[in-house]
Design goal:
The protein is mainly β. The protein is built from two helices and ten strands. It has one domain: Regulatory factor, effector binding domain (Multidrug-efflux Transporter 1 Regulator Bmrr, Chain A), CATH 3.20.80.
């Protein structure tokens, strides 16, 4: 019942708030290990989270874990989506990113693995070769938190407001935005927690 009302009871990424403004925060995120999968969203009838089940199977969220050990890996939050050209490096916890691949757009979804995994080689090896395990270093973002449903229209508006605020205050944006969704689809919209993040120097 708590999940319906927006309770977040899973591990979330560790970060330090460097500065808190009226309209955004500057955060420094700790290094992490991620599991990611890149896929063609048209194979999932337009569902941008089509890679979710591939990663959920890897960690054992919906049955026996599809990895080199029988160990289930705890789910974390948020799920993050990113829209960017392929040439820009991707970073985030649990991530879906949209990349242009010639004629079609590809999506990449990432789960940040629990902090007990400090190196990529410490995480169970995926059985599914589409799942890639890699490390992400320390990174810094401008972040805005908001509730409701993170529709494309709402996200575009939030990102533009964040970009304006960051540039106004002298920060240099160095990549594409991320959208972080902390709640499952059955959480009531009024109780959802979302964030947009822009990487900065």
């Amino acid at each position: 019942m708590g999940l319906v009302f927006g309770k977040i009871d899973v591990e979330t990424p560790k970060f330090e708030v460097i500065k808190s403004k009226d309209d955004y925060e500057i955060r420094k995120y700790s290094p992490s290990v991620i599991a990611e999968v890149t896929y063609d969203p048209t194979h999932f009838k337009g569902n941008k989270d089509g890679g979710f089940m591939i990663l959920a199977n890897y960690i054992g969220a919906v049955g026996n874990p599809q990895n080199s050990t029988p160990e289930k890996i705890a789910m974390t939050a948020p799920v993050i989506t990113q829209s960017s050209p392929k040439k820009i490096p991707m970073t985030a916890p649990v991530v879906t990113k949209e990349v242009e691949d010639k004629e079609k757009k590809m999506m990449t979804m990432q789960f940040i693995l629990p902090q007990k995994y400090r190196k990529a080689e410490e995480a169970p090896r995926p059985v599914d070769e589409r799942v890639v395990i890699r490390e992400e270093g320390e990174r810094k973002y401008g972040v805005v938190k908001f509730g409701g449903v993170a529709t494309e229209e709402v996200v575009v508006k939030k990102v533009e407001e964040l970009r304006i605020g960051l540039e106004r205050d002298g920060y240099k944006v160095i990549g594409q935005f991320l959208v972080a969704r902390y709640n499952p689809p059955w959480t009531l919209p009024a109780f959802r927690t979302n964030e947009v993040l822009l990487p900065i120097e």
